[in-house]
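Hi L.,

You mentioned the student needs an example of a multi-chain input paired with its predicted structure. This one should do, with 1075 residues in total across all chains.
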Amino acid sequence: MATTVKNKKTAPLGTADAMHIRPFSIRRVVKESFDTFSLELDPLSGEKGHKFAPGQFNMLYVYGVGEVPISISGDPTRHKTLTHTTREVGTVTRAMRNLKVGDTLGVRGPFGSSWPVEDAVGNDVVIVAGGIGLAPLRPVIYYILAHREKYGKVVLLYGTRTPEDILFRKDLEKWRSRFDLETLLTVDRATGAWKGNVGVVTTLIGRAPFDPLNCVAMVCGPEIMMRFTVLELQKRGVEEDKTFISMERNMKCGIGLCGHCQLGPTFVCKEGPVYCYRDLKDVFIKREM
Amino acid sequence: MTTTKKPKLAVWKFASCDGCQLSLLDCEDELLAIAEAVHIANFPEASRAVEKGPYDVSLVEGSITTPHDAERIHKIRRISKYLITIGACATAGGIQALRNFKDVNDFISIVYAHPEYIETLNKSTPIADHVFVDFELRGCPINKYQLLEVVNALLNGRKPNIPPYSVCIECKRKGNVCVMVASGTPCLGPVTQAGCGALCPSYNRGCFGCFGPKETPNTVSLAAQFEKLDVTRDDIVRIFRGFNAFAEPFRKESEAYEK
Amino acid sequence: MKNLMIAIVERKDFQSLFDALKKKGYQISGPTLRDNAVIYDNISSVEDLPVGWTDKQDAGRYRLEKSDRASLFGYVLGPQSWKKFLYPAEHTFLNISRNGKRFEVGSAEEEQQPQAFIGVRPCELQALAIYDRVLGEGEFAATSYQLRRKKLFITAVNCIQPGGTCFCASMKTGPKATGGFDLALTEMFDSGRHYFLTEAGTKLGEEVLKQIPNREAGEKDILAAEEALRKASEKMGRRLDIKDIKEMMYRRFDDPHWEEISQRCMTCGNCTMVCPTCFCVNVEDTTSLDGREAQRLRKWDSCFTVDFSYIHGGSIRATTTSRYRQWMMHKLSYWQDQFGMLGCVGCGRCITWCPVGIDITEEAAYFRKEDK
Amino acid sequence: MENLERILKEHPFLAGLDDKYIKLLVGCASNVAFKAGEYIFREGENANQFYFIRHGKVQVETYVPQQGPVIIRTRSEGEIFGWSWLVPPYKWHFDARAVEVTRALALDGKCLRDKCEEDHNLGYEIMKRFALIIAERLEQTRMQLLDVYGNHSKK
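Structure written out for the whole complex:
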């Protein structure tokens, strides 16, 4: 795997100006956990669907409130409906949560780089997700399962804070019942009723069934979780240039013009959010860069 | 904004000059739109009629200077869903906080014929020292567009565009020439929060710091530069001791030069 | 390029340049005096230029002075850069109106009147080239910038009199304009004569030049101008050694000296506002009181603000140290990775207009010394 | 016994350990099984064993008043748990309970302590291995403390 899959983006549809917002209608609202929800959107402007690559994001605009970057969490092989999953953490996502079926949401995108699902063909794939980090990785799982025969062993390691924080429960149930996908869950803290694993997500790496020398790792979660995860993957022998992470920074434009999402030499909205660890390792550990 | 009941708004006055309330009245062009969007239930500068609470929004002007006020603000907090303080008095103690640097009893005996009737606290303090404040709107007086912006943002459920950065940023956006660099005029702009539209530098004067300290203010560096511009130590104390004299960073800097 | 016109325009005929540009429909912008400084504004005649004025500059200090000759371009650089015209400080780009559960989005971008800049310094030409790369050439371009940029006529002015905080010579961006202009002037004084050696850089420039009274420049004229520019290069107030500067600065990322700079830095953002290449903007949302109309607008922003790097939970660059470092390393290191060029053109504005006189050349020199 | 010896020998935890030491360990080992929900040990009891989990899952928990049992960490097949036998006062600090039917090798810690005391080479080999386990536990605990997925929003 020589290179990161960079900027595999589709040109924004509708208008030439990438700052132009396209209205979408909310078809369904799904409550994923007490503070996390998914929105399923249909285009209003007559465009047919919304093509994207797993890992890409859209800028979502709530009328009069503002705009935020949210990763696409739906199925990339079925792009009639656009699905986003987000956590309520600020003014805009709070307003988004109050939207109802039939309300309008503005969309710009898709923007950014994507997970190397095509380059990973022929390899084992280990997907490590922490918390809301499963959202941008879900399209990867959908994609791989749609092309399952092309991959070796596929492992999903997913950690959350508590059992109540586990997202996409229906999907997880389905995935756990499959023989061609190893799904391991763990939570950081739990009380009595929980019968699953307890411990940070990195504890799953040591015993996950994959061949570290023939494997592509895709990691998404809080930065500190990704730091520990990469260390643990390296302990098992996964190569740097086959390890991929997804970064988060302040994004105001999504197209590399506003400057806010700079991470040293790169713009997270353009070269990221998905990076090959080898390309980012020098800046990844720099404080306040 | 939903078409449900209009939010009830109240304006309250503590130790102050009423100038900030007047900023609301000064919104001539927008006042009708405001009156349409909110129900003004209590506004001493505009009407004597007072409607009972609770209120959706309380705008509080003035600082706490008497034991009675210290009690009254708690009552207001209890009947207000959102409490927004407006102006330097309410957010930093105001110009009357200059007394905080001296013994208040000395002032009382000088100013009043019968000091024994005067019941006052020995410090003038901001509202946030007494109750939880949802939003602080700075300025002496506040800027009417900022006030409109806060009300507007609240009504539309968005974050108000009230940036905590320096006056310099809005000053340069406006195309002003830096008075300190080009004319050697001491200016508090680099340590003062934006919001006034860089009013004084637009008229070739140094910023007086009406909007109080900005985020991460480096008053030490600015004061050192004032000295290079031959501003005396006494004058540096005076510059920092304006309408926001008791705001922590300004207070500390003025005290450093008082010694 | 070589076969384009080089001519002499006498001072008395200089107004013809304004007239020719106006005739072509250009709105002319150029240097003029205001508030004790030379600023850029819309102008209409030679009289609007800062005739007979010059400036003295040092770190944190700028003073206008009377010049001993009636030069039109005897000043060095003012606080403003041309970005104020091409990428305005505040600009509404979307108008959105609500209609029940739906909303309609309308672009607020408009075709612009052609603009002509008079008095663009060589360092500023480089700044424009940088802006072109940053805002105009990527996969996504800034529409409002392109709408203004594409109709721009540039009259450059070479620098025969560099300022105290200039360091274009060491950045290889001046004092002579080498491209990116329609016309380039060198203001010459020679035994009582006052004239402009005028070089056309484009066909359009040549077309305009032909409408101004002129005579063909001889080799002597060209050599005289070159000599004046060579001298200017030697008088440059400051220098910045750019050899391997990207790598050098990366190595100093954790240097304790950043902390020392932060003792002086006020994070006021002046350097970013006056910088001709700083391009960062914020996007703000506004609404009408009744909620029926909303707008999205772009404002110049600064990496010195806390909110600049805010993601839920806090700011990535919370400390002054990290914010100053971001700015300086962006100019000298990150920019090269991002755009394949330096983000600094050596104009010296950030040095002059820093209220406490922090000097990027001095700090870079300190880091270089530490690096050895 | 041959079976136990093979299991111990192949376990990555003991990789590289001299055969004579493996034999010694076998002398301290026994097969154990626990039903789902059964306590393996309780807080405050003497810590005289550690376990190689062969099958099943174990949770380490503590009882917090008003909250009930809080699960600190689970251990699964192939993993080792229990190191209180190694440090005085040799008491369990937590409860351990089988989440499901669990089979394990129990090694007698007291027996092992004595052997390590007699032969410091063995002692060093064991210490080295447990130091790794303890460091790993510490690292994981620190990460848990960081509460990385929490909503830390200040605004």
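You could point out the following to them. The mean pLDDT of chain B is 92. Chain B is about 40% helix and 10% strand.

Best wishes,
N.
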